[in-house]
Amino acid sequence: MTNKKYIIALTLSVLSLSACKKDLQDTNKNPNEAETAQPDYLLANAIKSASDNYYSTSNTMDASLLFVQHWSKIQYTDADRYIFTNSSFEGGWKSYYTQSLGDLNALIAIADKSGNPNYKAVALTLRSWVFSLLTDAYGNIPYSDALDINKLNPTYDDQRAVYLGLIADLKTALSTYTTTGNAIAGDPIFTGNINRWRKFANALRFRLALRIADREPVLAQQVITEVLADPAGLLAEEAETAKLTYFTSPNQNPIAKIFETRDDYRISKTTVDKLKSLSDPRLPVFANKTATATPEVYVGIPNGLTTGDAANLGFAKTSKPGDFFTKATAPAIILSYSESLFDRAEAAARGFTTENAASLYQRGITVSLQYYGVDATAIQTYLAQPAVAYDATNFKKSIGEQKWIALFGQGLEAYAEWRRLDYPQLQPAVAGVLDGKIPLRFIYPGSEQSLNKNSYSAAVAKQGADVLTTRLWFDVN
């Protein structure tokens, strides 16, 4: 299997005919089109479409990266001011449901038919990830009915039910994986390494347990105990980070593609100020130097300026996000080794485990710094700062702030963790339109109101108004 094959987008056309003669059936066959979907193509396409969507404009660049103030805008600043319509999040919603989840469900059906449990387990794992992105962003979502072709108007499950369902699905995936079964192909993440898929499933299950920890601490602890008892374990090295590595055009990172023709994104002043205050060696990686020499080498833009005020700061006198994140081969990070360590630190801090929270916290920072090429001496200097030291009396602040830095560029995950941990304490957009508030969710796409009105209305009635400021179930204030 070549790299190119991994990322082929597979388009299927299913022709349904009734009471046709054999010669007519033969005439209508396309000799150049597969009649049966191949599992490796479905897997590769599902991973590629989900990763592209994660790092898309609607989900990340014009939404979550701005909300968590990793990036900001110097032009076309409406999104940075929280000005959206009910079509703003349409593309991301549709892509996840019709492409990624559709492919993964088809893969599960093929796996059941062919007797390949590993394809099914991988599909369940990835499906859980995609559904988690949707509920993290929107709240109540179509889940149990979502992929049933006989239900054109799927009901919305409440967020608690979705998280519990995903945690259960991942448990099923973990019991389905087998190292003695048939191999899988079309896997650009772990190249068919089932042990690494099992570790990723455990790490994802651990992540979701923490999502519910403020609401369901007993259940969260139970899930984490199960994860730590699983023989596969959790991520143990950087090589086990779940990610899709892109190539050069036309298979480049979607952010790189945007940067080929646009120049409206800058690094947020919030991020620059935070990294400067900590003498953080990741600053030269996260930000480019200003094109024109300025007194400050790295200059961020405050989030949510009007277009005029932002432009007045100067395109050449402000810093773009670092090339590390905008190059063609920049990977799509799904779940990193560093994040897994921070998750374990939090579980220990909550008393869910007997591990050492401070040690795991320091390891999470260390792994993040190492990922960006920081040397051992600089890492020790960084960790020795009082402002970086772990504070057991306020673990949410320590872990929240360092995790926010480590998740730079991973907009959707950083956004979920900021809402859950409440750190760092961000200031709303300068010229924001939400009365001094930062968005707490995505609004549902307008198509749901027109095509699935009854289910949409029931979801809104249960969850709260379909506005950016409605707090989701997992986000306990």
Can you walk through the features of this model?
This protein has 21 helices and six strands. It has 477 residues and is mainly α. A two-stranded antiparallel ribbon has the order 1-5. Helix 16 runs parallel beside helix 18. The N terminus is likely disordered.
Short key terms for the protein model shown above:
signal, Serine Threonine Protein Phosphatase 5, Tetratricopeptide repeat, Starch-binding associating with outer membrane, two-stranded antiparallel ribbon, globular, mainly alpha, 21 helices, TPR-like_helical_dom_sf, 477 residues
N-C termini distance: 48 Å
Mean pLDDT comes to 92
Into which percent range does the helicity of residues fall?
Answer: 40-55%
**CATH architectural type:** Alpha Horseshoe
Largest sheet: 2 strands, antiparallel
Total count of domains: 1
Q: What's the number of helices?
A: 21
Question: Under CATH, the topology is which?
Answer: Serine Threonine Protein Phosphatase 5, Tetratricopeptide repeat
Number of strands: 6
Oligomeric state, counting identical vs distinct chains: single chain
Which radius of gyration do the C-alpha atoms yield?
A: 23 Å
**Regions with little confidence, pLDDT below 50 for 5+ residues:** 1-28, 30-34
Pfam family, one: SusD-like_2
Organism: Pedobacter rhizosphaerae
Signal peptide: 1-21
InterPro entries: SusD-like_2, TPR-like_helical_dom_sf
Q: What is the topology?
A:
Elements: H1 3-6, H2 22-27, H3 39-54, H4 57-67, E1 71-73, H5 90-114, H6 117-138, E2 141-142, E3 156-157, H7 159-176, H8 194-211, H9 217-229, E4 242-244, H10 254-259, E5 265-267, H11 269-277, H12 283-286, H13 307-312, H14 323-326, E6 332-335, H15 337-349, H16 357-371, H17 376-383, H18 395-406, H19 411-421, H20 446-451, H21 453-463
Antiparallel strand pairs: 1-5, 2-3, 4-6
